[in-house]
Write a structure and sequence with these properties.
TIM Barrel; 8% strand; 3 domains; globular; alpha/beta; two-stranded antiparallel ribbon; 743 residues; membrane; Integral membrane protein; 12 strands; ten-stranded mixed sheet
């Protein structure tokens, strides 16, 4: 072999090139295995881009797609507000993440060749469990709502039940909600007879008791579910039987094998072919060639051994250079959007896909860069060792152990000095911050705009039914909310329900049955609570929640927080709750005269009194517990669509210093789909400017549902910036009054 190399110098160069190229292939394979063929890589990319949260907060509520989505949801038998507001309860981001991770793993198995078919696997068990909890809580909510009925219309109920059953049998989704009515035993028998007319004679005897039992307990959905499979065609009955069999077996994992010949899978199938070729042919061949070439380099390099390290060291160094050059070219040539979405996709979905692809490409190339740096370090180490080994007598300064402490001390001293001096030189002194801005410290409390969360306690995070916010209260504060609209309650007691029912026209037996149902599905709990509608649909213990707000304030000493309580709890118990939560040192006492100007934010912060508390009903006796409508005014709040929003006077009149803009849509619950439009920066600014012109006062509190959807916070920040630029719009010390109407 030595003779061959001496006769042909190009042979050594060829061996070295083969070693570099094969090492590059192996390094690229390592990058691919740790990225493209690693399920954790995709999971981290989706996590980095907050893909699961953005699906709910951006894609689902994109104004481009909401008309179609709303139209589809309106065809279902459940109000769309019920579906969309509870979507994150039934399928929370965590459940969506688990489903996605499972499917990513299936795709990776297919790409690696572990399976011949692409398998779609969805585990519905968490969804089923959430739906079960949702239905139970909603049943309690529906029963509580019936307390307000003076007289049940049984005939209308039976008629509506028959109509809905006919629609279900015809394979159509009912266009309106299921009827709700507590029935006496005789009424349940009559309703059962109405449903049995839709069932074949042979099945009535066995099905009747099941349907009657469901109607006896007011469960219309179960009654229809029992009737429909028997009345529908054979195909539907077969499908229903399969679902029931799955349920009885205790598994809700649905698996479907997809034929790889399907046109939509062509790109995935091509990627699988390349992956298998790379794994089964290219990578093993590269490993053999690399090992052989490195062995030949060692054997063909003249002795001693210290000289043989030099060509070996240049192999990983050259490999690193080749990979770095490839990464640079890819960064310059690659479009971050490798796969363009269809033109029909809403902009938010296209943006999400583009961001995910850009992050994936960046992480892929970053991983390749790290591998290149590791190879470069390995090559440099081999080259340096070989060079020092050969030249040690001529390099006493670097190789003499006696000089090691001196060099170490010098490098350490320089690093410490740089660490201490650099931050000061770069950052300089920090300006004072109030309410998250350096421009608001000298602004009065009644001059600034703040983001408010409507029904702040009813959150997805705390598993409320019909939530109107997604993060918990601390998460909302972290997201920029500074005003929390909260509802305080005592938990409903069956005795109170019975007292209210005693004045109704319900028969005594029905009253007793209704009371027993409430005891079972909505048992009372002592104490003070934050609830929305009924406490059985979600509740937070008042005192611990107030304590969390206090902890947040103490951790953020430059912030002011306001609470507006819809006080279902009296003022004295409420005062006690704030004291038990340890908030006495934070509570601000408004001036007894509501017409007097409020202090500047910096004065409130310096005084340590940074928690303002209002109530909708009470006014005292604590000096910090004031009726909001003595100090503030508001707009209406019962808008059923964005187009209905107005600036008309509501509670508080038109001449107060504080102005609450109720900026949300309520139609049978929160409207998540409308939040993308309603909470957009442009929509908030347009309505705020319009209402300010009509009232002659700046909007102070912008109350929204789903505060983390859209950019209501950006609109609030822009309102404050506008006011600081143009103080003449609302001069300091001016008495509230009406400006000329702008139409």
């Amino acid at each position: 072999m030595d003779g061959l190399v001496r006769r042909s110098p190009w042979a050594g160069v060829l061996i070295w090139c083969v070693a570099v190229l094969s090492a590059t292939v192996l390094a690229a394979a390592a990058v691919v295995r740790s990225t493209v063929l690693d399920p954790d890589f995709y999971g981290q990319v989706l996590e980095d881009e907050r893909a699961y949260q953005r699906f709910y907060d951006e894609v689902l509520v994109d104004p481009v797609s909401t008309p179609l989505t709303s139209d589809l949801l309106d065809r279902l038998p459940v109000p769309q507000s019920t579906i969309t507001s509870n979507l994150k309860v039934v399928i929370p981001p965590e459940t969506l993440r688990v489903m996605t991770d499972r499917q990513i793993a299936e795709v990776i198995h297919y790409l690696k060749g572990d399976r011949d078919r692409l398998r779609v696997t969805v585990d519905l068990e968490p969804v089923v469990a959430n739906v079960e909890r949702l239905s139970q809580a909603y049943f309690g909510d529906a029963v509580a709502a019936l307390q307000q009925r003076s007289e049940p219309d049984f005939q209308a109920f039976v008629q509506r039940l028959s109509e809905l059953a006919a629609q279900v049998v015809a394979g159509e989704a009912p266009l309106e909600g299921l009827p709700s009515l507590p029935l006496s035993h005789g009424q349940a028998v009559a309703a059962t007879d109405a449903l049995m007319r839709l069932v074949p004679d042979a099945a009535r005897a066995g099905l009747g008791p099941t349907v009657q039992t469901a109607l006896d307990r007011g469960d219309v959905a179960s009654a229809l579910a029992a009737v429909a499979p028997v009345a529908l065609n054979d195909r539907v009955r077969t499908t229903a039987a399969e679902l029931l069999r799955e349920a009885r077996q205790g598994t809700w994992i649905v698996t479907v094998d997809i034929d790889p010949a399907h046109e939509a899978l062509a790109p995935v199938d091509r990627a699988r072919s390349v992956t298998r070729l790379f794994q089964e042919v290219v990578e093993p061949a590269a490993a053999v060639l690399c090992a052989a070439a490195l062995t030949l380099l060692w054997l063909t390099t003249p002795s001693p051994a210290r000289r043989r390290l030099m060509p070996l060291g240049w192999v990983p160094a050259a490999t690193a250079a080749l990979m770095a050059l490839t990464v640079l070219l890819l960064r310059l040539a690659l479009d971050s959007a490798l796969f363009g979405p269809p033109s029909s996709w809403p902009p938010s979905a296209s943006d999400l896909l583009g961001d995910v692809q850009a992050t994936a490409v960046d992480r892929l190339l970053t991983t390749a860069t790290v591998v290149a740096v590791i190879l470069l370090a390995a090559g440099a180490l081999l080259i340096t060792v070989s060079w020092v080994w050969q030249t040690r007598p001529g390099m006493p300064v670097l190789t003499d152990p006696r000089h090691g402490p001196t060099l170490t001390f010098a490098v350490t001293a320089c690093a410490l000095v740089g660490t201490m001096v650099a931050p000061v030189a770069i950052t300089g002194s920090s300006p004072r911050i109030c309410q998250g801005s350096a421009d608001l410290c000298d602004a009065r409390y009644d001059e600034i705009a703040q983001l408010a969360s409507h029904n702040a306690m009813a959150t997805t995070a705390d598993r409320f039914i019909g939530p109107l916010q997604d993060p918990d209260i601390v998460g909302q504060l972290d997201a920029g909310v500074r005003v929390l609209l909260l509802d305080t309650h005592h938990w409903e007691r069956p005795k109170e329900v019975a007292d209210r029912l005693s004045s109704s026209d319900f028969p005594p037996e029905l009253r007793r049955r209704l009371t027993r149902i409430l005891e079972r599905v909505n048992p009372p709990h002592p104490g003070l609570w934050l609830c929305h509608s009924v406490c059985g649909a979600g509740a937070l213990d008042l005192v611990p929640t107030l304590r969390q707000i206090g902890d947040w304030l103490r951790a953020h000493p430059t912030e002011v927080v306001t609470l507006v309580l819809q006080d279902g709890v009296g003022p004295v118990p409420s005062q006690g709750a704030f004291e038990r939560a340890g908030l006495s040192d934070l509570l601000y006492e408004p001036d007894a005269d509501p017409d007097r100007p409020w202090p500047k934010l910096e004065d409130m912060i310096d005084g340590g009194r940074r928690l303002v508390v209002f109530a909708e009903k009470a006014d005292g006796p604590a000096p910090w517990y004031r009726n909001f409508y003595r100090y503030g005014m508001e707009t209406p709040f019962a808008f059923r669509s964005p187009d209905e929003m107005s600036c008309l006077p509501n509670r508080g009149g038109t001449d107060k210093r504080l102005f609450l803009l109720n900026h949300f849509v309520t139609a049978g619950g929160g409207r998540r789909l409308d939040a993308g439009l309603v909470n957009s920066r442009q929509r908030v600014l347009e309505r705020a400017h319009n209402c300010e012109r009509r009232r002659g006062r700046p909007v102070n509190f912008v109350a929204v549902d789903y505060a983390t959807i859209g950019d209501a916070l950006g609109a609030v920040e822009e309102l404050n910036a506008e006011r600081r630029r143009d103080d003449s719009r609302f001069p300091v010390g001016r008495s509230p009054g009406r400006l000329p109407s702008a139409g």
